Amino acid sequence: MSLTPVLIGLGATVPPRVVDNEELSQRLGTDDHWIRTRTGITQRHWAGPKTATGDLAVTAAQRALRSAGGGRVDMLILATSTPDHPMPATAPDVAARLGLGPIAAFDISVACAGFVYALASAAGAIAAGIAERVLVIGADIWSTRLNPQDRNTAVIFGDGAGAAVLRAGEPGEPGALTGFDLGGDGALKDLALVPGGGSRQRSDPDGTGEADDYLTMRGKEIFTHAVHRMGESSAQLLKKVGWSASDVDWVAGHQANVRILHTVADLLEVDRARVLIHLDRVGNTSAASIPLALTDAAADGRLASGDRVLMTSFGGGLSWGSAALTWPPIQVSEVLV
């Protein structure tokens, strides 16, 4: 029997600075009502000038390790699209700062689908016998890559980090991740893109403007693809693991837009009341959004041991992924916001 990844610890963090809709409205010529009705977001947290993605990742990881009761870690996987440096990867530095020793540590960049992809990567490492305990982190600081005059992106994104500790276990035990569904379509990469900063920009003499370092996003098209792909991926995964819509206790979807989350729930015929919503207080935190939502729900008691949780995500790439989890009896103390 193949070893199965089992969730044993969870932790998350957001920067202390709160940026509410009113603050952005004054600069962008919009208002709180416009932002809330289109996104469901009322505020977001942005990192200060001396805070990097790795800093948030370390804090979230420390909390997850504490939630897991300590112990060794054999591998660290960091999902981020806003690393501390283009090179080297941020994960080895995070592992060193956590005092984990010379373990395998690497970044993956799958935008907002990163946490689910990282969980799947950890599952593969555990099943292959490469690692017995894996620390998975989703962390992003997008506030540094947003055009301050672009209301299509500036009102949406927040900064944060979430982490999970997985150990090798058996398929039927609480905390077991029972299945995954992953996909992508690179032909649509231009729908969400940071043009600058990579080798493509340096090979293109026209790609030299400062704005090239900002995130560009075609929101209406992203909305359509997110609903379709998250819904389809979730349905395929439910079929794979043998769950019906009525078996799902909670949907932990990528926290991009409340209308996307509700529409996906409707497609799956899952009650909207069973959708975890955290974006109203933190915005779209990219790879951190699902672990942030899970941490918040676990800390306030909504998630109970034995609950069946469907995680589903969508991000630039385009990329998407879903995972099924039976919730474990873990302690999460930090109520974020």
TrEMBL record:
The record places the active site at 112, 254, 284
Which residues are in the Beta-ketoacyl-[acyl-carrier-protein] synthase III C-terminal domain?
238-327
What is its pathway?
Answer: Lipid metabolism; fatty acid biosynthesis
* Keyword annotations from UniProtKB, A to Z: Acyltransferase, Cytoplasm, Fatty acid biosynthesis, Fatty acid metabolism, Lipid biosynthesis, Lipid metabolism, Multifunctional enzyme, Transferase
Residue ranges, annotated region (ACP-binding): 255-259
Q: What class of enzyme is it?
A: transferase
Instruction: Tell me where it resides.
Output: Cytoplasm
Record carries keyword Ribonucleoprotein:
no
The molecular function GO annotations come to: beta-ketoacyl-acyl-carrier-protein synthase III activity
Query: Pfam families given for it?
Result: ACP_syn_III (PF08545), ACP_syn_III_C (PF08541)
Main localization, broad class: cytoplasm
Domain Beta-ketoacyl-[acyl-carrier-protein] synthase III N-terminal residue range list: 106-186
What does it catalyze?
A: malonyl-[ACP] + acetyl-CoA + H(+) = 3-oxobutanoyl-[ACP] + CO2 + CoA
The EC number of this protein is: 2.3.1.180
What family name appears in the similarity comment? Belongs to the thiolase-like superfamily. FabH family.
Record's comment describing the protein's domains: The last Arg residue of the ACP-binding site is essential for the weak association between ACP/AcpP and FabH.
Q: How does it assemble?
A: Homodimer.
Q: Relate the protein's function as given in its record.
A: Catalyzes the condensation reaction of fatty acid synthesis by the addition to an acyl acceptor of two carbons from malonyl-ACP. Catalyzes the first condensation reaction which initiates fatty acid synthesis and may therefore play a role in governing the total rate of fatty acid production. Possesses both acetoacetyl-ACP synthase and acetyl transacylase activities. Its substrate specificity determines the biosynthesis of branched-chain and/or straight-chain of fatty acids.
User: What is this protein's name?
Assistant: Beta-ketoacyl-[acyl-carrier-protein] synthase III
Originating species: Streptomyces albidochromogenes
